[in-house]
Amino acid sequence: MTNYWPNSAYSNLAISSNDQLLVTDDFLRTYMERPELKLVPESCPIERALHRRLTENPRTDIADDEISAMADEDIQENYRVWLRYRKRLLAASSLENFYMSLFKGEGVDVPPLFIAQLAQIFIRHILGSDVHPLEARMGELFFRTQKISVIEDGIVMGADDEVVARNAQASDTGNIMDLLKGKSMTMRSADLDVLHEDNADSYWTRNEDFDLAVQLNFGHEPINLFCRVLEKWIKHFLGVSVRITPMQQITDPKWSWHVGLDAAATEILNKLYNKELVEADELQKVICLFRLDFIDEAAVAQAQAGKPVYMAIAMNDHQQLKLKPQNLLFNLPLAKTS
């Protein structure tokens, strides 16, 4: 049993009898220590007093004129964003309910950083403590942008985009392969090590460093485990059991539904579905294709019963994989519920 990602604030939440996450005062307090709201030496007395009140009672009402009285206009805006976010958090019956509500109606009005933090918390909850380290690493795709490189022999490597950028600045190189010492897939002392089945347990000592690269090719275990995470994500939020299988190509003449798991994949799948011309360099952006089959046929819209859903992940023009896990929650052909 492993406690990973301890800084995610997951441990500050309560869990309901139906396995939903519930907001607590301790969870709200964690936001007061985030860089956006944390006190600094330059903080004015009014900001300090407001920060203290919200730390003591995270649900206390704050009037806008109190915020306007703070000296720093940027801090004022940070507090307004936070209080609007808090209002929606507290109005929801669970953290899952709040997350789902973000993508409905008038659109997302909270910082992307907060959404990524929630995705990390959900993945931590869904995977639990008894999890394979490679599965936890693939769970990172839900909340951290990956930098993709295709190296010798068509090997597709994914590494944390932020870590690659940071290491590139230090070593004057932006290529993942240059950051892998000796240009090999073996575990070595290097800026970026590759996580695989033989060294998987090393993940636990570095689980918040996000500095382990991973191979994303079809037929390799990380992609298989990514499918398991996707299945658990759908089951937790929608209560629907599915089976997801990696694919190398779509040859189905009766292809009737697809979901891109990121913006680049959505664009490519739409073009393929509509039989539009897709240039070779655009097709090369596809990292992997997937087939989703519903185990629970009663959950599927009648017109889609017995038919698969095709999915894909792809890198964008900056060689980044930016997963949009909410796509799986809103774009599946589910039967309407009353």
Tell me briefly what this model is.
This protein has 338 residues and is α+β, with helices and mostly antiparallel strands. The protein has helices spanning 25-32, 45-56, 64-68, 73-91, 95-102, 112-127, 133-139, 161-171, 176-179, 221-238, 263-273, 280-283, 327-330; strands spanning 14-15, 21-22, 146-150, 156-160, 193-195, 212-215, 242-247, 258-260, 286-294, 309-314, 320-321. Strands 5-6-4-3-11 form a 5-stranded mixed beta sheet.
Task: Explain how this protein is built.
- The protein is an alpha+beta fold and 338 residues long.
- It folds into three domains: 6-127; 133-215, no CATH class; 221-330, no CATH class.
- It has 13 helices and eleven strands.
- It has helices at 25-32, 45-56, 64-68, 73-91, 95-102, 112-127, 133-139, 161-171, 176-179, 221-238, 263-273, 280-283, 327-330; strands at residues 14-15, 21-22, 146-150, 156-160, 193-195, 212-215, 242-247, 258-260, 286-294, 309-314, 320-321.
- Strands 5-6-4-3-11 form a five-stranded mixed β-sheet. A four-stranded mixed β-sheet has the order 7-9-10-8, with helices on both faces.
- β1 and β2 form a beta hairpin.
- α6 (112-127) crosses α10 and α7 crosses α10 (221-238).
- The two termini are 39 Å apart.
- Mean pLDDT is 91; it is low at 181-190.
